[in-house]
Automatic annotation (TrEMBL):
Organism placement in taxonomy: Bacteria, Pseudomonadati, Bacteroidota, Chitinophagia, Chitinophagales
Native organism: Paraflavitalea soli
N-terminal signal peptide: 1-19
GO BP: carbohydrate metabolic process
Protein name: Sialate O-acetylesterase
InterPro entries according to UniProt: Galactose-bd-like_sf, SASA, SGNH_hydro_sf, SIAE
Keywords: Hydrolase, Signal
Length: 647
C-alpha cells in the first residue's frame, strides 16, 4: 500500500466529511458560489438523514434518500462575502463541516487542451504578472486530471485557492487574464473552475450519450465498451510516464558524455536539412530521444569571445552542447527565448561541434522554422546554423509504451466535467481544436455537440459559451494553399450559429514556430470583451469584422462585413494583406484589396472572372484587416468547395 497516498486521502476525506455527511471536492474553503440564481449544494449522508446547511445567515435543509444522496438549493444571493458554509446533521449540536472564506460572485468553467492549460508562469511577462497578482477576490479550482470510463460523482482532487503571488503561477493564463479583466470591470468576485488536459480531442470532453447521436463519433465511442481502465493499468501507465520523463531529463548510456564530443564518429548518421520538425525526419511517428550534430566553421575573430547561439524555438525539451560541453537544458519552454551564451573558453576559430539532444513527443521536436532564427553570433557577425545536420535515434533507452487513455471518447467528461454538475456557474470558456485539426470537417458536428451537451446537463438554459479560435501557427506559405487549420477555424466560426456563443479571434497573435503562443493576456482580454458585451450587457465592441456577403462587379468582388465599428482599416497601417481570389478553375491567387468604409473590394490581374474569395485561409496567414476597435477580421471563404479534411 502507498502509505503517504493513503494518509493524504484520509486527510482530504476528513476535511469534507463529518460522521457520514460528506461534500464533493468541488466545494471547499475559499470557493466562489454563483450569484443571481439559486445555489445548489449536495453531498451524501446516511439514508434518511436530515441535513441542515447554513450559508451566512440563510438556512436550508434536505433529507438523504435511500441512496444516501441529498441536494438543496439556497435562494438567490447578491455578490459579496466572505461567508461560512456550515453542514451538519439536523437536531444535533455537532459542528459538522465548515467551509470558510466563501464568496458570492460569478463562476466560469475554463476547459480545453494545452493552450487553456498553459500557466501564467509560462506566458508572456510571467515574472511581472506573478509579482503583481494580488487579487483576493479571484479564486481558482484546478481540477486534478482524471480519465474514467463511467461518469463519476466527484473529482479526483483539487482545492479552491486565492489568487496571489504564490498561487497564480500555476493557474491557466487565459482564464486568469479573463478573470482579472472581468473582476476589474464588473467589481464582483470571480471564480474559475479549471478543467484542462493538453493534447486532447473534443470527443474526450463529451458525454457518451451525446457522442452516440452522431455517426462520426458513434463507432469509436462504442469501442470504449471493450476498454478496461483497471487500476493496475492506470498505475502502470502513470509509472511509464514517470519513466519517460526520467529518460528525458537524464541522458541514458552516457550519451551526454560521448556524443557531443568533437571527436565522436558520427559516420552513418542520417543527413537532414535544418530547420525541420519530426514529421519530416523520415522516422514516422517516432517518440523518443533524438540526437542532432553539426560541424560548423567559425571566423577566427570569434575565438576567445562569448558567443550567442539561438535555436529559434524547439518546441519540446532539449539540451544544447558546444564542443562537448552542455550549454543549456530547456524544460517545457522554461526560457522566454532560446538564445544562450557560449562561454569564450569553449570557442575555437575554425571547426566547432554543436550537438542537440531533443525529446520527440506528440509529433513535436526538432528545430522549427524559420531558418533565420537559428544562428551563432558575436554581436557583429552572424553565422547561420541552417543547412545540413546529422541525426540519429535509438541511441538511448526507448520510451515505454504510453496508452494515453485521455484521448479516448468521453473519458475526460466522465472524470473532470460530470463531477462538477450542477455547480452554479455563469458560463463556459473553451480553448481547444488543435487536436482535431486533421479531421476539421468533423469538428463542424462535434463542437456544437459538446456545447449542447454541457448546456443540457447543467440545466441552466443556453449558458454563455465563449471560445478561442485557433491562432496562426506553422510556416508561412508563399502561395495560397489548402489548410486543415483554416478548416478547423471555419468549423469553430460556424458554431456561432448556436445561441449565446462568442468567439475570440486570435489570428494575429499566434507564433509560427510555437503552438503555444505566449501572449495569453490578449486572449483573455478578448474573451472578456465577449463576456462584457454578451453577458454583462456593456456597450463594447467584442468581435472583429465578420464576413456577411459578396457581390461581383466585373473582374472584382465586393465584400460586405458586420462588426466593423466606424470602419475598416489595417492593423499596421499598410496595404491590406491576406486576401486570395479564384475563378471557376478554383486556382487562388493573391489579391489586391481596397477598403471602402465597411466594405472591401478584391481583385487580381490573373483572375478576369472571379468566383470566390478567401481571407486568412492558411495555417499561418499574413493578414491585417481590423475594425475600429483594432480587432482582427475573422478568417473566411465565400466558396463551399470541398476541403482537404472533408470525407
Amino acid at each position: 500500500m502507498n502509505i503517504p497516498f493513503f494518509i493524504a486521502t484520509l486527510f482530504l476525506l476528513s476535511s469534507r466529511c463529518y460522521a457520514q455527511i460528506s461534500l464533493p471536492k468541488v466545494f471547499g474553503d475559499n470557493m466562489v458560489l454563483q450569484r443571481g440564481q439559486p445555489i445548489p449544494v449536495w453531498g451524501e449522508a446516511r439514508p434518511g438523514t436530515l441535513v441542515t446547511v447554513v450559508l451566512g445567515t440563510v438556512r436550508a435543509t434536505a433529507q438523504a434518500g435511500k441512496d444516501g444522496k441529498w441536494m438543496l438549493r439556497f435562494p438567490t444571493f447578491t455578490a459579496g462575502g466572505p461567508y461560512t458554509l456550515k453542514i451538519a446533521e439536523s437536531g444535533t449540536r455537532n459542528t459538522g463541516i465548515e467551509l470558510k472564506g466563501v464568496l458570492i460572485g460569478d463562476v466560469w468553467v475554463a476547459s480545453g487542451q494545452s493552450n487553456m492549460e498553459w500557466q501564467v508562469q509560462q506566458s508572456q511577462d510571467a515574472r511581472k504578472e506573478i509579482d503583481n497578482a494580488g487579487s483576493p477576490a479571484i479564486r481558482f479550482l484546478v481540477v486534478e486530471q482524471d480519465k474514467q470510463l463511467k461518469p463519476r460523482s466527484d473529482i479526483r482532487g483539487g482545492q479552491w485557492k486565492v489568487c496571489d503571488t504564490s498561487n497564480v503561477k500555476n493557474f491557466s493564463a487565459v482564464a486568469y487574464y479573463f478573470a482579472r479583466k472581468i473582476h476589474g470591470d464588473q467589481h464582483v468576485p470571480l471564480g474559475i473552475i479549471q478543467s484542462t488536459w493538453g493534447g486532447t480531442p473534443v470527443e474526450a470532453w463529451t458525454s457518451r450519450d451525446m457522442l452516440l447521436t452522431s455517426p462520426i463519433s458513434r463507432a469509436r465511442t462504442l469501442s470504449n465498451d471493450t476498454l478496461r481502465l483497471d487500476p493496475e493499468d492506470l498505475i502502470a501507465d502513470s509509472l511509464n510516464w514517470i519513466r519517460t520523463w526520467d529518460i528525458i531529463y537524464h541522458p541514458q548510456n552516457n550519451t551526454d558524455q560521448i556524443i557531443p564530443a568533437p571527436e565522436y564518429n558520427d559516420e552513418g548518421w542520417t543527413a537532414i536539412a535544418m530547420p525541420n520538425v519530426i514529421k519530416d525526419f523520415g522516422i514516422g511517428n517516432y517518440e523518443g530521444m533524438v540526437w542532432l550534430r553539426k560541424k560548423i566553421s567559425l571566423p577566427g575573430s570569434f575565438a576567445g569571445k562569448d558567443l550567442t547561439v539561438n535555436l529559434g524555438h524547439p518546441e519540446m525539451n532539449y539540451s544544447l552542447y558546444f564542443n562537448g560541453q552542455e550549454v543549456c537544458k530547456n524544460v517545457w519552454n522554461a526560457n522566454p527565448t532560446h538564445a544562450f551564451t557560449i562561454p569564450a573558453g569553449l570557442v575555437r576559430g575554425g571547426e566547432n561541434t554543436i550537438a542537440v539532444r531533443v525529446a520527440m513527443l506528440w509529433g513535436g521536436g526538432g528545430l522549427n522554422p524559420p531558418a533565420e532564427d537559428i544562428y551563432i553570433t558575436d554581436g557583429a557577425t552572424t553565422v547561420s546554423l541552417a543547412g545540413k545536420w546529422l541525426y540519429k535515434n535509438g541511441l538511448e533507452t526507448a520510451f515505454p509504451k504510453i496508452l494515453n487513455y485521455q484521448y479516448y471518447p468521453t473519458v475526460l467528461f466522465n472524470g473532470m466535467i460530470n463531477p462538477l454538475i450542477p455547480y452554479g456557474i455563469k458560463g463556459f470558456l473553451w480553448y481547444q481544436g488543435e487536436a482535431n485539426a486533421e479531421a476539421a470537417y468533423d469538428y463542424r458536428t462535434l463542437f456544437p455537440m459538446l456545447i449542447k451537451d454541457w448546456r443540457q446537463r447543467w440545466g441552466q438554459g443556453s449558458l454563455p459559451f465563449l471560445y478561442v479560435q485557433l491562432a496562426n501557427f506553422r510556416k508561412v506559405q508563399p502561395l495560397p494553399s489548402e489548410s486543415d487549420w483554416a478548416e478547423l477555424r471555419e468549423a469553430q466560426a460556424l458554431a456561432l450559429s448556436l445561441p449565446n456563443t462568442g468567439m475570440a479571434c486570435t489570428i494575429d497573435i499566434g507564433e509560427g514556430n510555437d503552438i503555444h503562443p505566449k501572449n495569453k493576456q490578449e486572449v483573455g482580454r478578448r474573451l472578456a470583451l465577449l463576456a462584457n458585451e454578451m453577458v454583462y450587457k456593456q456597450p463594447v465592441m467584442a468581435s472583429g469584422p465578420q464576413y456577411k456577403s459578396f457581390q461581383k462587379e466585373g473582374n472584382r468582388i465586393r465584400l460586405h462585413f458586420t462588426h466593423t465599428g466606424t470602419g475598416l482599416s489595417t492593423k499596421d497601417g499598410k496595404e491590406v494583406t491576406g486576401f486570395a481570389i479564384a475563378g471557376k478553375d478554383k486556382l487562388f491567387h493573391w489579391a489586391k484589396a481596397i477598403i471602402e468604409g465597411s466594405e472591401v473590394i478584391v481583385y487580381a490581374d490573373e483572375v478576369s472572372e472571379p468566383e470566390a474569395v478567401r481571407y486568412a485561409w492558411a495555417d499561418n496567414p499574413l493578414c491585417n484587416l481590423v475594425n475600429s476597435a483594432h480587432l482582427p477580421a475573422i478568417p473566411f471563404r465565400t466558396d463551399e468547395w470541398k476541403g482537404i479534411t472533408q470525407p
